[in-house]
Amino acid sequence: MNAPLSILPPPPASAGAAGAIHPVTDTAAVIRFEGVEKTFPARSGSGAVSALTDVNLAVPEGAIVGVIGRSGAGKSTLIRLVNGLERPTAGRIVVDGTDITALSERGLRQARRSIGMIFQHFNLLARRTAFENVALPLEIAGIPAREIKSRVEPLLDLVGLADKRDRYPAELSGGQKQRVGIARALATRPRVLLSDEATSALDPETTNQILALLRKVNAELKLTVLLITHEMAVIKAVADRVAVLDGGRIVEDGSTFDIFARPQHPTTRSFLSALTGSTLPPHLADRLKPAHTPGAEAVVRIVFTGTHATDPVLSRVSRLLSIDINIIQAQVDDIAGQPFGVIVVSLPGDAATVAGVTNAIARLGLASEVIGYVS
Questions:
Q1: Dihedral angle at the C-alpha atoms of 62, 67, 68, 73, nearest 10 degrees?
Q2: For residue 152, how many other CB atoms are within 10 A of its CB?
Q3: Rg of the chain in Å (alpha carbons)
Q4: pLDDT, the chain, mean
Q5: pLDDT above 70 as % of the chain
Q6: CATH number of the domain within which 97 lies
Q7: N or C: which terminal CB in the chain sees fewer CB atoms within 10 Å?
Q8: Is 250 in the same domain as 338?
Q9: For the segment 310-342, what is each residue's pLDDT rounded down to a tens digit?
Q10: Three-class SS state of 136
């Protein structure tokens, strides 16, 4: 199939007359937030609302970068700044070498052709078929009908909907509607793809299919993807890098594997707790104490990563120190293509034994943490 070649993005447009795009010098990042702040003006009876504060973030070319945060953290505001639907109060956003914050409305319209957008609730027109919905941005751009057909058909094939081209949204499932939305976002041959909670309205199985499609699109079309979500499982499944947004600030960012393996901020740890097996069973959590008492056992969390993820660490430590180690909880997973595991154990809680175990685990190249004591 020759479809991927026909929908690869063209070279960036050069600067032109008033209102045109004016590239800025560059870095390897396709999207850059530089000291970005966004404050919404006061409404009657309330003060001004600060949505984003001092946001600095780089999205590398060809990467899938996820921004995660709770409701109200500023995620939607952040993504709307990228395509100029919102203007920052301070700082700037550079997309594909263009300072979006410096553009006129005319310049923004031109810039948006290189920025595709996928929405949570699909935003399809009910009276247009799948083909016609995908074709819409091309019609608006004044593309000839023959060229529209040559672009839309390969896109429908790419997203697995070639046989649904004449179906209306009411005749499609949620996952199929989102596939139409993805094809439409790709129609203008963008360099950047934005995803605004694109899987939040879908069931788990369909979510996995859409995330796999995003990975495929990223790989085949060399697109840079910025997605926002409140689900760490989405980050785990698809993102190369992740930024954690809390109260309008980025509190942590890095490679997905590093963030999962060594979360630093409490918000990140909270997001990860259930996903990585870090949440203790209720009957144990209720009894957990911060300090050791006579006869109490220590509860220790051990993180297995990379080449050590399948090592028989517990049996080695148990034999080395001649102690019994009880497994309370265990989970092994795959994060960003690398094995990752978390095991929670209990063991004798005296200081000497706990120090011996944690030191032995460190010598074996793993991380551990004493999370409390139980009697």
A1: -170
A2: 25
A3: 25
A4: 87
A5: 89
A6: 3.40.50.300
A7: N
A8: no
A9: 678 888 899 888 999 999 888 877 787 778 888
A10: helix
